[in-house]
Design the sequence.
């Protein structure tokens, strides 16, 4: 053993990272299992890429955010960086596999961003993403609508019934609208990213940014206002179809080719979303712009109760602008060091995505592999679900991590504790597909063994008595019973040969017993 | 869209890494699911740690191999490195959580080593590990034997029946034996690592290294030879118990405290392994030393057919020493650039581990958290299993990735292709727990839709006919039927309202049909 260099060192996780253990990792796994089941229902296949990519692969894909990329130290050899999202690795994979013209892939993995962490909000430097993307040719909105349908199916599978809204817009409508309003072509993206802030700040602030910081003509800004305050759908004062009709009747807008294409296809999208039972969940929102450069068509973002900062939530919506600005100032100041204990406040979107038709072509010339997809922010889904569980909500897909059986033994002073016999029983149960534990003391006191069985939450104890063992008998006891008259509380003596059958029967029985529900039986 | 910097760049994975996709990732997931099911049966809980750790955490833990650690570039802030294994992060986590005195954890994740890759052998720079470790107090061999039992249960779950051997030794026996032979204390570890090479080279070479390179007295080396050539158990000429008896009768060895403790506990281990149905899989092998510094008791390593380099496999065992040396020289030369197409040859061990009682104490003073565990080399398990499947072997746990249903439609020239109706049917099937796909063309030719259904391997087609649709009827067709008289080959017309029931019934039926087995139905 070399000299000890470890002592006295700082013992912690790297900034913005966490260990997942205990009930947390159990809930995380349950959430991921629900999501991947939905993905597989749509025929999506898993892809798993390396945690790092050649630096060239990531270069120039994330605009200003590139500064948040983690680089691997140059130790000789290739220059590498940790992945920043799962989209660019997918595009790189498609470009490398030119024979693949069409693919449905999902990917569940952690991504890395050297951002300022805000733990309570679920903003971490290492965090989970869960992506589904469809690549290949498609008639207008056929693929896009199916991706939106997976969003609805995921949130229904997570039992967030009604507690989410899919904000949808289209880059073509947005860009066409900017053209119609008179935004110069070279200002389109910067004005677009100003518009995207409307979920975080009031119009006055956004207008100020456009005019004062970005040098946009005030009149153009006012024309933009007319559009970007339009919403229709879930939670809005008009339906998505009504908003669509307003746009279809807007002659100036319909005279713009881009806008017209976007609006026409939006009509198709609506009919598909209706068939896919997804229409009720959407809000057509002309202020949605999304930050990333590479989107070329439909874009969307999923918000849930508490996704918006406090100053913009329903309860405070009608406050005066003064009050809003006050709150906003405070909110911005707190942004990077949020220590709020309510993880459902201001977490931002819980899923987002859109169509990106040109990304694969940036890796391989003449590669025409149009794509559309969505990414779920799993850490946020986790934080919100956990907080709802703590508030008493039940989710049927949350599984127990307790073993089925705890195997124990007791006897007199001359008793060896039957370690080998306990192992043999546990092995028999394992081979029958059951989970079983026993204490790692050769001879343990019975109360200590019961304590451990309770700690691990086993619903059944299999108890070896020194005397009964000799007759080939063993006792099956149901843990946590309160009914004194139930013989299973004391334990029922059975033949060792019937062990597996009896344990399985008892497990099946108690899953219907109301008074052992508290044991959280699988 | 910013200027395109991507084109013309090298399009590849970082050296020593791979993408997992298609059937490969399906098989990988099936293997991981088998392993984690075994782990959970023993009551182990998942732990997930960040991909990187503070550099201090890894420092001084891996001896010479530390040079293989990937560092993260210093971009300001903490100094970080990618994890090298899952054991040190577990020890760090235990040290950070001082309230946890006892824990069974498993961890499935990728680890990172800047080693020379040998793809065909499954030696990668990014590779999967699958670890189970028990931490906390235990009576002698109670925990150790349970970990060995998980190894047997994993390989049985993977259906490698009989095709693996668990080589076991104990550091205390090894160190005591070195003392008895007269190895100076400061040479123990270096002589130990020379002994560990006996699975790669013949004794003559190892002796040469001991005497010429490491300056050991030749007589001492000869005394060592007597011990390290002793084996007993699976595939050996004597049983493990017989070897144990030889050691128990070795007065010199039993006079050494360390050796005596190890040998006595080995007797206990054997009785436990018998109870755990694990005894037949082991070979007690005094030449097993394992490279890592931190082991303090039992150590083990799992080999499979082809684990040993060719010159040491059974078929060549009886060759003359000359021939052996010749082959050995060749084998060493090839070692770092093995391009063999047979992944079962010379992959090394497929799992390894042991007891390490002092590692947690290196992170936190006075932390007494003894541990014992095993790590499965998943990439190697994958390569070997895949190669066996290619050779025609069947594994019952390998699942299909095909959807249950392909939804299609056909009609006359005036038919719109029923995109919305296909979506509605797919959504109904999804909500009933089934997987279903449809083509992303609004109006597709029927032969094209059949081709896609075949490509994705759907066992059932749901077919919408333009005329039948009007009557609320839909056809269910079983794909891949050869029996012309079976009406399901042509398709059976049913009421739309009965769709889910009929599809589920048909799926259940065809899982028993021999002539659609080739469709690889789930």
Sequence:
């Amino acid at each position: 053993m070399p000299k000890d260099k470890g002592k006295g060192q700082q013992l912690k996780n790297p900034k913005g990272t966490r260990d997942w253990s205990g009930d947390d990792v159990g809930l995380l796994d349950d959430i991921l299992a629900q999501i991947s089941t939905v993905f597989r229902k749509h025929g999506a296949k898993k892809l798993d890429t390396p945690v790092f990519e050649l630096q060239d692969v990531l270069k120039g894909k994330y605009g200003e955010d590139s500064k948040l990329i983690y680089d691997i130290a140059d130790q000789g050899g290739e220059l590498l960086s940790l992945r920043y999202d799962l989209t660019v690795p997918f595009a790189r994979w498609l470009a490398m596999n030119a024979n693949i013209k069409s693919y449905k892939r999902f990917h569940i993995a952690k991504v890395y961003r050297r951002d300022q962490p805000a733990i309570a909000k679920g903003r971490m430097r290492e965090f989970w993403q869960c992506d589904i993307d469809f690549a290949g040719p498609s008639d207008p909105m056929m693929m896009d609508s199916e991706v939106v349908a997976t969003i609805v199916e995921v949130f229904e599978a997570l039992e967030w019934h009604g507690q989410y809204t899919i904000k949808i817009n289209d880059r073509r409508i947005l860009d066409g609208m900017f053209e119609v309003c008179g935004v110069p072509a070279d200002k389109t993206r910067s004005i677009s990213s100003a518009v995207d802030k409307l979920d975080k700040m009031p119009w006055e602030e956004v207008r100020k940014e456009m005019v004062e910081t970005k040098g946009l003509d005030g009149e153009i800004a006012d024309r933009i206002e007319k559009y970007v305050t339009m919403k229709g759908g879930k939670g809005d004062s008009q339906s998505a179809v009504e908003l669509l009709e307003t746009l279809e009747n807007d002659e100036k807008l319909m005279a713009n080719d881009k806008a017209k294409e976007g609006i026409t296809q939006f009509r198709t999208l609506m009919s598909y979303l209706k068939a896919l039972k997804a229409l009720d969940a959407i809000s057509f929102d002309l202020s949605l712009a999304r930050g990333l450069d590479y989107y070329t068509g439909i874009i969307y973002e999923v918000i849930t109760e508490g996704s918006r900062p406090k100053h913009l939530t329903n309860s405070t919506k009608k406050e005066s602008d003064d009050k809003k600005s006050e709150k906003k100032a405070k909110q911005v100041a707190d942004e990077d060091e949020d220590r709020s204990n309510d993880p459902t406040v201001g977490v931002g979107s819980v899923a987002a995505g859109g169509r990106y038709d040109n990304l694969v072509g940036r890796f391989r010339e003449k590669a025409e592999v149009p794509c559309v997809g969505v990414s779920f922010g799993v850490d946020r889904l986790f934080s919100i679900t956990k907080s709802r569980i703590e508030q008493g909500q039940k989710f049927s897909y949350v599984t127990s991590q307790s073993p089925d059986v705890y195997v124990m033994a007791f006897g007199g002073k001359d008793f060896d504790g039957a370690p080998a016999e306990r192992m043999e029983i546990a092995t028999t149960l394992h081979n029958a597909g059951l989970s079983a534990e026993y204490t790692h003391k050769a001879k343990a006191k019975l109360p200590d063994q019961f304590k451990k069985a309770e700690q691990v939450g086993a619903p059944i104890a299999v108890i070896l008595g020194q005397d009964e063992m000799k007759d080939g008998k063993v006792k099956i006891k149901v843990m946590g019973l309160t009914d004194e008259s139930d013989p299973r509380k004391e334990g029922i003596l059975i033949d060792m040969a019937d062990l597996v059958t009896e344990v399985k029967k008892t497990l099946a029985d108690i899953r219907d017993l109301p008074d052992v529900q508290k044991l959280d039986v699988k």
